[in-house]
Design brief:
The chain is an alpha+beta fold and 117 residues long. The chain is built from four helices and four strands. It has helices at residues 8-25, 42-51, 71-77, 98-116, and strands spanning 32-37, 59-64, 83-86, 89-93. The chain has a four-stranded mixed beta sheet, with helices on both faces. It holds the Pfam family Glrx-like. This is Glutaredoxin-like protein. It comes from Chinchilla lanigera (Long-tailed chinchilla).
Length: 117
Protein backbone atom coordinates (compact mmCIF):
# COMPACT_ATOMS: atom_id res chain seq x y z
CA UNK A 1 0.00 0.00 0.00
CA UNK A 2 1.30 3.45 -0.82
CA UNK A 3 1.49 5.87 2.09
CA UNK A 4 1.43 9.59 1.56
CA UNK A 5 3.57 12.09 3.42
CA UNK A 6 2.12 14.01 6.34
CA UNK A 7 0.03 11.75 8.47
CA UNK A 8 1.73 8.58 7.31
CA UNK A 9 2.67 7.16 10.69
CA UNK A 10 -0.61 8.23 12.28
CA UNK A 11 -2.60 6.49 9.54
CA UNK A 12 -0.48 3.37 9.69
CA UNK A 13 -0.68 3.15 13.48
CA UNK A 14 -4.41 3.89 13.51
CA UNK A 15 -5.18 1.28 10.86
CA UNK A 16 -3.05 -1.32 12.61
CA UNK A 17 -4.67 -0.55 16.00
CA UNK A 18 -8.15 -0.94 14.49
CA UNK A 19 -7.12 -4.22 12.94
CA UNK A 20 -5.62 -5.58 16.17
CA UNK A 21 -8.53 -4.42 18.32
CA UNK A 22 -11.03 -6.16 16.09
CA UNK A 23 -8.90 -9.23 15.70
CA UNK A 24 -8.53 -9.63 19.46
CA UNK A 25 -12.23 -8.85 20.06
CA UNK A 26 -13.19 -11.59 17.65
CA UNK A 27 -12.65 -15.16 18.80
CA UNK A 28 -12.58 -16.30 15.18
CA UNK A 29 -10.13 -16.12 12.34
CA UNK A 30 -12.49 -13.96 10.27
CA UNK A 31 -10.86 -11.10 8.40
CA UNK A 32 -11.74 -7.53 9.34
CA UNK A 33 -13.43 -5.41 6.68
CA UNK A 34 -13.16 -1.76 7.70
CA UNK A 35 -15.67 0.68 6.24
CA UNK A 36 -14.63 4.33 6.38
CA UNK A 37 -17.89 6.27 6.46
CA UNK A 38 -19.74 9.32 7.76
CA UNK A 39 -23.35 10.26 8.40
CA UNK A 40 -25.15 10.68 6.11
CA UNK A 41 -23.64 8.48 3.43
CA UNK A 42 -26.16 6.94 1.01
CA UNK A 43 -23.39 5.13 -0.88
CA UNK A 44 -22.23 3.59 2.41
CA UNK A 45 -25.78 2.42 3.15
CA UNK A 46 -25.96 0.89 -0.33
CA UNK A 47 -22.58 -0.79 0.19
CA UNK A 48 -23.66 -2.31 3.51
CA UNK A 49 -26.73 -3.78 1.83
CA UNK A 50 -24.57 -5.35 -0.88
CA UNK A 51 -22.29 -6.84 1.79
CA UNK A 52 -25.07 -8.57 3.75
CA UNK A 53 -24.76 -11.92 1.92
CA UNK A 54 -21.06 -12.01 2.94
CA UNK A 55 -21.51 -11.02 6.60
CA UNK A 56 -20.52 -14.45 7.92
CA UNK A 57 -17.15 -14.24 6.14
CA UNK A 58 -15.75 -11.09 7.82
CA UNK A 59 -16.09 -8.78 10.79
CA UNK A 60 -17.37 -5.36 9.68
CA UNK A 61 -15.68 -2.43 11.41
CA UNK A 62 -17.15 1.01 10.71
CA UNK A 63 -14.98 4.09 11.18
CA UNK A 64 -16.76 7.45 11.23
CA UNK A 65 -14.20 9.75 9.62
CA UNK A 66 -15.91 12.87 11.05
CA UNK A 67 -14.98 12.01 14.64
CA UNK A 68 -12.04 14.03 16.01
CA UNK A 69 -9.92 10.93 16.66
CA UNK A 70 -10.27 9.99 12.99
CA UNK A 71 -9.16 13.33 11.53
CA UNK A 72 -6.28 11.74 9.61
CA UNK A 73 -8.76 9.43 7.86
CA UNK A 74 -11.03 12.41 7.18
CA UNK A 75 -8.19 14.28 5.47
CA UNK A 76 -7.41 11.24 3.39
CA UNK A 77 -10.90 9.99 2.49
CA UNK A 78 -13.29 12.96 2.82
CA UNK A 79 -14.15 12.87 -0.90
CA UNK A 80 -13.89 9.11 -1.42
CA UNK A 81 -16.24 7.35 1.00
CA UNK A 82 -17.16 4.63 1.20
CA UNK A 83 -13.64 3.26 1.43
CA UNK A 84 -12.87 -0.32 2.46
CA UNK A 85 -9.77 -1.88 3.97
CA UNK A 86 -9.45 -5.63 4.41
CA UNK A 87 -7.21 -6.61 7.33
CA UNK A 88 -5.71 -3.13 7.34
CA UNK A 89 -4.99 -2.99 3.60
CA UNK A 90 -6.83 -0.79 1.11
CA UNK A 91 -9.35 -2.85 -0.87
CA UNK A 92 -11.77 -0.55 -2.72
CA UNK A 93 -13.58 2.78 -2.68
CA UNK A 94 -16.78 4.49 -3.90
CA UNK A 95 -18.68 1.26 -4.66
CA UNK A 96 -18.48 -2.35 -3.56
CA UNK A 97 -16.63 -4.49 -6.08
CA UNK A 98 -18.04 -7.94 -5.29
CA UNK A 99 -15.56 -9.81 -7.49
CA UNK A 100 -12.59 -8.07 -5.84
CA UNK A 101 -14.03 -8.73 -2.36
CA UNK A 102 -14.73 -12.36 -3.19
CA UNK A 103 -11.23 -12.87 -4.60
CA UNK A 104 -9.57 -11.42 -1.49
CA UNK A 105 -11.82 -13.32 0.92
CA UNK A 106 -11.06 -16.59 -0.88
CA UNK A 107 -7.34 -15.83 -0.71
CA UNK A 108 -7.53 -15.20 3.05
CA UNK A 109 -9.69 -18.26 3.63
CA UNK A 110 -7.19 -20.39 1.72
CA UNK A 111 -4.34 -19.03 3.83
CA UNK A 112 -6.21 -20.06 6.99
CA UNK A 113 -6.81 -23.54 5.54
CA UNK A 114 -3.11 -23.85 4.62
CA UNK A 115 -2.06 -22.91 8.17
CA UNK A 116 -4.52 -25.37 9.71
CA UNK A 117 -3.31 -28.21 7.49
Amino acid sequence: MLWFQGNTMQLAKSSFRLFLRNLSASKTTLPVLTLFTKDPCPLCDEAKELLKPYKNRFVLQEVDITLPENSAWYKRYQFDIPVFHLNGQFLMKHRVNISKLEKQLLKLEQQVLDVDS
